[in-house]
Design brief:
The structure is a single chain. This protein is α/β, with parallel strands linked by helices. The chain has helices at about 25-35, 55-65, 80-90, 105-115, 135-140, 160-165, 190-205, 265-275, 285, 290-295, 300-305, 310-320, 350-360, 390-405; strands at about 40, 100-105, 125-130, 145-150, 170-180, 205-210, 235-240, 255-260, 325-330, 335-340, 365, 365-370, 380-385. It has two domains: about 10-50 and about 300-405, Alpha-Beta Complex (Aspartate Aminotransferase, domain 1); about 55-295, Aspartate Aminotransferase, domain 2 (3-Layer(aba) Sandwich). It has a seven-stranded mixed beta sheet with strand order 2-8-7-6-5-3-4, with helices on both faces. Strands 9-10-13-12 form a four-stranded antiparallel beta sheet, with helices on one face. The longest helix is centred in the last third of the chain and has 20 residues, at about 390-405. It is globular.
């Protein structure tokens, strides 16, 4: 074997990005191994910040371990799927049965499987910008083309409905909705969801509704399940245990199909085939689903005033308000903020450069905004999982790095209030 020999990766990886765990995260890991303490705000992983999975869910797993040693049905254990059906029915979604529910190793696996069962080469999927980058990556890996519809900062990160409508072509197969939104924290109004549903119905697009943060809303924000609005086309609702129930490591997610499922029978059979090929998803974690969905919803204590997530979100709001450089659309849901840097204060700001300097100099890890498929590079995402005191320290460090950015070139205008 010669030194010139190289193993070439698949061409399908070209254009696939997941910077949340990419170059910066690898550098942070190297620094941690050298003894540095890193404040990691790049990923929504509750456990490292002291959040626990509800005890009743842990007990449900333990009590059913003996029943978890073999493969289960490819769609998942019946009690878990039936619990999802009951939740959908309680929300006003009619016609869903256990046959319409697939359990997966987290929502991530199901995003891949549902797209793989659908797409032919060159098929298009409408994906929000900014997006959770797994959606764009999965479309690309499954031979499709992600077409990004804008959710502009100056519109509160709400979808631009006119732009979305113009992007539909004869090759468009599906439309992705993330509500409450990751990375922006936007929560969509009923009027917005109605308009998107009618657009999808008009063009017979599948609606892929990513609702993993469904109960994580603040103040007067209202989460409205998309499946209660979509009536004349297929709607796939994605959710799981990772976020609301702080059980990321259990790797339990589900997708529930509603609407005219009879018109999608061959598609669902294809999805069932793909589910069979991976045999089944993690069985022990599935036993926690029924307890999670039917029990006390502890997330409500965390997101109301005085709750841990509410107060850390307020720390983000206060930190941005006190900054000379930062702007933010106040997040109404989820566990993130998509923070902008005022171009009038730092015209030459670059999100990748900033994130690297913040990590190297101040040991804080954030996700650059362009990681979320934005056409602009003056944003970055942070999570509000740390406590308020930690986030206050983060903003102090950020301001010092931003002071350095601003000092590199003279600027005539600084951020104004309002």
């Amino acid at each position: 074997m010669t030194s010139e020999f190289r193993i070439k990766p698949s061409d399908s990886l070209q254009g696939v990005r997941y910077e949340i765990r990419g170059r910066l995260a690898r550098r942070a890991h190297e620094m941690q191994r050298r003894g540095y303490e890193i404040i990691a705000l790049n990923i929504g992983n509750p456990a490292p910040f002291g959040f626990r999975t509800p005890e009743t869910m842990r007990l449900a797993m333990i009590e059913n371990l003996q029943a978890s040693e073999g493969y289960c049905h490819q769609q998942g254990i019946f009690p878990a799927r039936e619990a999802v059906v009951m939740q959908q029915q309680a929300r006003g979604v009619a016609g869903v049965t256990a046959d319409h529910v697939f359990m997966g190793n987290g929502v991530s696996e199901l995003i891949d499987l549902t797209l793989r069962a659908l797409l032919d080469p060159g098929d298009e999927v409408l994906v929000p910008s900014p997006d959770y980058p797994l959606w764009t990556a999965s479309v690309t890996l499954n031979r499709g083309r992600a077409v990004h519809y804008p959710c502009p900062p100056d519109q509160g990160f709400q979808p631009d409905l006119e732009a979305m409508s113009r992007l539909v072509t004869p090759r468009t197969r599906a439309l992705v909705l993330i509500n409450p939104n990751n990375p922006t924290g936007a929560v969509y109004s009923r009027a917005t969801l109605e308009a998107i549903a009618r657009l999808a119905e008009k063009h017979k697009l599948i609606v892929f509704s990513d609702e993993i943060y469904d109960q994580m809303t603040y103040e007067d924000a209202e989460f409205i399940p998309m499946a209660t609005i979509v009536r004349e086309t297929l709607c796939a609702t994605f959710s799981g245990l990772s976020k609301i129930y702080r059980a990321c490591g259990y790797r339990v997610g589900w997708v529930a199909f509603s609407g005219p499922t009879d018109m999608a029978q061959t598609y669902l059979e294809g999805l069932d085939l793909l589910a069979s090929l991976r045999l089944c998803s993690n069985v022990p974690g599935q036993w926690a689903v029924q307890t999670a969905l039917g029990g006390f919803q502890s997330i409500r204590e965390l997101v109301r005033p005085g709750g841990r997530l509410f107060e850390s979100r307020q720390a983000l709001i206060d930190g941005v308000a006190a900054s000379r450089y930062l702007t933010m659309v106040k997040p109404a849901g989820a566990m993130y903020a998509f923070i902008g840097v005022d171009r009038r204060a730092i015209p030459h700001f670059d999100d990748q450069e900033f994130a690297l300097e913040l990590l190297e100099q101040k040991h804080v890890l954030v996700a650059p905004g362009t990681s979320f498929n934005t056409p602009y590079n003056n944003h970055f995402r942070v999570t509000n999982l740390p406590d308020a005191a930690t986030l206050a320290e983060v903003f102090r460090r950020m301001e010092e790095v931003l002071d350095g950015f601003a000092a590199r070139r003279p600027v005539a205008v600084v951020k104004t209030s309002g």
